[in-house]
Amino acid sequence: MRALYRYGQRAVFAASIASCWALSALAQTPAPAAGGAAPAAAAPAAAAAAAAPKLDSGDTAWMLTSVALVLMMTIPGLALFYGGMVRKMNVLATVMQSFMVTCLVTVLWTICTYSMAFTPGSPWVGGMSRFLLMGMTLDSVNDLAKTIPESVYMCFQLTFAIITPALICGAVADRMKFSALVWFIGLWAIVVYAPIAHWVWGSDGFLNSAGVLDYAGGTVVHINSGVAGLMCALMLGKRRGYGSEPMAPHNLVYSMIGASLLWVGWFGFNAGSAVTAGTNAGMAMAVTQIATATAALTWMFVEWALKGKPSVLGICSGAVAGLVAITPASGFVDPRGALAIGIAGGLGCYWGATGLKHAFGYDDSLDAFGVHGVGGTIGAILTGVFAVSAVGGDGHSGLIDGNPGQILTQLYGVGCTVVYDAIVSLILLKLIDLVIGLRVDSDAEREGLDLTLHGEVVP
C-alpha cells in the first residue's frame, strides 16, 4: 500500500512539473514586434478571427442532453443491470461498484486523464495543458468539437471514461475486495483508458493517424473493458461454488429495467458522438436502434432453438450485445449494415457468453468479456466491412464500398488495444495482489459482500 501511495505521489508531482513547464513555455511566446510590424500582423490576426469557431446553441443543447443520457447508462442503468444478475447477498456491493466508479473517475478526469486523452501531446498520450482543467474557460473549445463549449465536450467524454471501467466490474462480481477494486480502477483509468482513448480519438493518436475507425467506442470502451475484465476473472479465479451451486439472478426485473435504461442512454452514446445535432446524429441513432433490436431477436431465437425457451435475461443480453456491436460502426454504416452487424453481434455474443467461457473454464461472472470484449471485436472488424462513404464521408469506407484494406486496419486497432490492455491490466492486478490482495476470503464470500464489505443488507 505504501509503495502504491508513493507511486501516486510521484505521478501527481511529475504531472504538476509537466504542467508548469507547459505554462512557462506559453508565457515565453514572443510578443508581436512594435512599429512597422503591426500592419503586417493585422492580416493574420483578422484571418484568425474569421477562422475562430462559432458555438452553436443547437449542438450544445444536444450534447448537454447526451451527457445526461450516457451518465444514465452507468447510474442507474448498468448498476441495475448488473445488480439484478447477482445473488441477493451481493446486490448492494454490485451497485456500489458502479456508483464508486462514477465518483472516482470524475475526480481523476478533472485532475489529469481528460488532458492525457484529449489534448495534443504525442502519438501515445496527450499533454498536460488541461491538468486540473487549467485553461478551460467559458468560451474555450476542444479542436475535436468546435461548435460546443469545451466544458460540455469534457463532460461528454467523461461519461465514456466512467462507463468503461464500470463495465469491468461485471467480471469480478461476488469475490473481489472493494479496496482492491478502487485501486485497480483508479490506476487503470490513468495508464490504460486515457492512453488508448488518445490513440484512437486524439488528433495526433497513432491509431487515429493509421485510419482506424471507431465512432463511439468499440475499441476504446468495449474491447478495452472486456479484455480488462477477462484479466480480472483470470487473476481472481472462479467464484466459490461456481459450476456446482445455483447462482441464479435474484431479480431479473432489475436487469430488464437496467437494460432498458442502457438502450435509451445509448442514443446519447452513439448519436451524441456526432458532436452535432445534424444528419450524422440522425443516422447513428437509426442504425443503433436497428442493430439492437436485431441482435436481441437473434439471441432470443438462438436460445429458444437450443434450450427450448426464450428467457428475459437472454433477450436483454442480446440487446446489449447489439448496442455494443454497432457502437464502433454507428457513424459509418447504413441500415443494411446495421442489420448484418446486429445478427453477427447476437450470434457472436451468445457464443461468447455461453460456449466460450465454458470451453476455457474461466468465470466471467456477468459476461463482461463475453458481451463487451467479443461484441466490441465483432463490431470493430465489421466496421471495416460495412462502412460506406455515403454515411461516414470520404476516407471512411470498407469492403463493400471498395476498400478491403480497412479490415486490416481495423484488425491492427483491435490487436494494439488487446495486447496493451491485457499486459498492463495483468501488471496492475499482480501489483495490487502483492500489496493488499485481490480477493475476499472464503468466509466473506460465503456470507455475501453486502454484509462483510459494506455492513448492509437488502431486507
Write up what this structure looks like:
With 459 residues, this protein is an all-alpha fold. The protein has one domain: Orthogonal Bundle (Ammonium transporter fold), CATH 1.10.3430. Helices cover 70% and strands 0% of the residues. It is built from 17 helices and no strands. Helix 3 runs antiparallel to helix 4, helix 5 packs parallel to helix 8 and helix 9 packs antiparallel against helix 10. The protein is globular, with a radius of gyration of 23 Å. The protein starts with a helix and ends in a 5-residue tail after the last helix.
Q: Architecture in CATH?
A: Orthogonal Bundle
Strand content: under 5%
Shape: globular
Q: Write down the secondary-structure element order.
A: HHHHHHHHHHHHHHHHH
**Number of helical elements:** 17
Q: Quaternary arrangement of the chains shown?
A: single chain
Distance between the termini: 35 Å
* Quantity of strands, as a count: 0
**CATH-assigned fold name:** Ammonium transporter fold
Q: If you compute it from the alpha carbons, what radius of gyration comes out, rounded to the nearest whole angstrom?
A: 23 Å
Major beta-sheet overview: none
CATH superfamily: Ammonium transporter AmtB like domains
Helix content: 55-70%
Notable characteristics:
single chain; mainly alpha; Ammonium transporter fold; 459 residues; 17 helices; 0% strand; disordered N terminus
Summary of the model, kept short:
This protein is mostly helical and 459 residues long.
Draw up the topology in text.
Elements: H1 2-27, H2 37-51, H3 57-85, H4 91-118, H5 150-168, H6 178-201, H7 206-210, H8 218-236, H9 252-270, H10 279-307, H11 312-326, H12 335-360, H13 368-386, H14 389-392, H15 405-435, H16 442-447, H17 449-454
